[in-house]
Amino acid sequence: MTRYGFLSTYPPTRCGLATFTEALAGALGGHGTRDATIVRVLDSPIERPAPTVVGRIPATRELIAGDAVSVAASVRVLEECDVAIVQHEYGIYGGRDGDEVVTLLRMLGTPTIVVLHTVLSAPTRNQRAVLESVCESAAAVVVMTENARDILMRTYRVTPMKVRVIPHGVPVQHAASEPRRNSTKRVLTWGLISPGKGLEWGIRAIAELGELASPVEYVIAGQTHPKVLALEGERYREALQRLIADLGLDDTITMDDRYLDAAQLADLVTTADVVLLPYDSRDQATSGVLVEAIAAGVPVVATGFPHAVELLGGGAGLIARHGDPESMAAAIRSIVETEETARRMHEAALRDAHDSSWPVVGERYRELADRIAEARAA
Fold this sequence. Notes:
7-stranded parallel sheet, 6-stranded parallel sheet, 14 helices
């Protein structure tokens, strides 16, 4: 039986990587594994311990940014595992562009699977150096889309044989049955709120839809990202609320500032006619919101970031231009005004999501980890 170590943000931290790692640990825990070890990445020490989660999987250690003692302690804990699964995102580790993780990986004797959540097409020199060093230390490198793999091979010096494409997992219970047929059409955006999410463009797009036969409501669900809240407070949310008021959309747009658990989120997604992702980023290689929307069978309108272009190519949604509310409004209009269009997108989404459930994705990670562990033993 394989003992897994995980290096990542982790609940109760609220972010996409934390949710991803919790779900992956749970999926792997269903394959006869021994207890897993979580090394939880933090900006600073905290008082309370992380709670026990799926099965017998506890968070047992904390890696603190800028703390060399915690680096050494984290290495010791991960050395007790057969395989370490490391989530990489520039913003979660200490140092310039998160380069403190490079030191940890070089110290670590346990073979690692590094999961890349961001693969920049135009990195700075230091960002490129950090990612190349992370990949050099890994036994295997996982990206979640073919587009991310292409960028990685084209832009960075990485051993091609190390790289695997494994999609972002989605909860099984998110599968929906049929598109909604309510008189009021609901557009939904969810996730942690921060500048760069393009929500101002989504709000302006809704202002373009006043002439529709069926009224449209827009729900923006999510708390402000904790790091944004610490640095800027609620400045971005308050600016969005002023924009809503200035456009006279107070009765049309709702900003729900709750952090929804998995069951609450599943219930909310089933009420949506369209999921809108108006993101400003042109480099986003992975979007958990996108894959969960597709898994729920909800038509998606997204700007042309790489993950959206790849996943929506099969007909599950439409691509709108960045920073262009008229383009977003036109895409939303084409979905909500024609039931046949919504039905075709619903069916395409469920087809595309078939191989992305967490049990299936977990099995692919398990097979990869087993091959790495066997190669090390040999």
